[in-house]
Design a protein that fits this description.
By secondary structure, the protein is of the alpha/beta class. It folds into 2 domains: 196 residues, Rossmann fold, CATH 3.40.50; 93 residues, Formyl transferase, C-terminal domain (Methionyl-tRNA Fmet Formyltransferase, Chain A, domain 2, Roll), CATH 3.10.25.10. The chain has 8 helices and 15 strands. The strands form 3 sheets. The protein has a 7-stranded mixed β-sheet.
Length: 311
């Protein structure tokens, strides 16, 4: 296969497998562009994004502009005369002043079957909504938000117990493989770009911490899917005895009667059953305010939670 000069743009963990796959291929990566280091944690120390950390390990050149569309960025990209730009969860929208630079266009790896779940959180929302399938799309980037022509897609089944974190890791690797396959097929002129049906588009908005608050009025299955979709971040949570509790895993249980949603139910001593809009779920893994994730039986040994308590 022909060797191309590819400038890579990406920031979070999801983008790392694609960068590694390109680096291990016959293609050249003259530059990696990623977001600036950001303050993290209680100490607010500057932390390099995962793509920068991997690029340093691979000894690749790195550029961290505040704006990819600034004249300085455009000049630096132009000077490298790239065949492709590859964008994977970069975090900034590219304008035509950048999109028009590479000879063969700008490729984007997106973890959904476009036009479904455009936007920044497609993996989480697919699970929250109870989808049984999702996938990866490789598209030609344009100025819109995930609106470009589709080059290749690959669908996967979602396991009923799979969390957003698990699916994220699977799709990151799948996207990397599909990216290489797409570049090869483009080089052999085997791909005809297909326009998206914009009438079928859905949007996966960015999640924030408060989105993880569990609504016990929802059905048991909806709550279980919500917990899966919120794991590991931002995390599904509720309040018990005025203490914030994070929930990692739950299962549906059969109950003889429906009581007010969000009520602690009578159950076995080492189980925690909570009523929902159509029944109840049993909490399996939990994280107390102390910050330690544990099995529910271990949690209940040190917590006084009585049946009938409304949370």
């Amino acid at each position: 296969m022909k060797s191309y000069r590819i400038i890579f743009l990406g920031t979070p963990d999801f983008a790392v497998p694609s960068l590694v796959a390109l680096h291990q291929s016959e293609h050249q990566i003259p530059l990696v562009i990623t977001q600036p280091d950001r303050p993290k944690g209680r100490g607010k120390k500057l932390l390099a994004p995962p793509v920068k950390q991997k690029a340093l390990e691979l000894e690749l050149n790195i550029f961290q502009p505040q704006s990819i569309n600034h004249s300085e960025s455009v000049a630096q990209i132009n000077a490298l005369n790239p065949d492709f730009l590859v964008v994977v969860a970069f975090g900034q929208l590219l304008k035509n002043v950048v999109l028009d630079i590479p000879k063969n266009g700008v490729l984007n790896v997106h973890p959904s079957m476009l036009p479904q779940y455009r936007g920044p959180a497609p993996i989480q929302w697919a699970i929250i909504h109870g989808c049984s399938q999702t996938g990866v799309s490789i598209m030609q980037l344009d100025e819109g938000l995930d609106t470009g022509d589709i080059l290749q897609t690959e669908m996967v089944d979602i396991d009923p117990e799979e969390t957003a974190g698990m699916l994220h890791d699977r799709l990151a690797k799948q996207g990397a493989n599909l990216l290489l396959d797409t570049i090869q097929n483009l080089s052999h002129k085997k791909i005809t770009p297909e326009k998206q049906d914009h009438t079928q588009a859905t949007y996966a908005r960015l999640l924030i911490k408060k989105d993880g608050h569990i609504d016990w009025n929802q059905s048991s299955l909806s709550i279980i899917n919500f917990i899966r979709g919120m794991t590991p971040w931002p995390g599904a949570f509720t309040f018990i005895n005025n203490k914030r509790i994070k929930v990692f895993k739950a299962k549906k249980v059969d109950v003889s009667e429906i009581v007010a949603p969000g009520t602690i139910l009578n159950s076995f001593p080492d189980e925690l059953w909570i009523s929902t809009g159509d029944g109840a779920i049993s909490i399996l893994e939990i994280q107390s305010a102390s910050g330690k994730r544990m099995h529910i039986a271990d949690f209940l040994r040190g917590a006084k939670i009585v049946a009938g308590l409304k949370i």
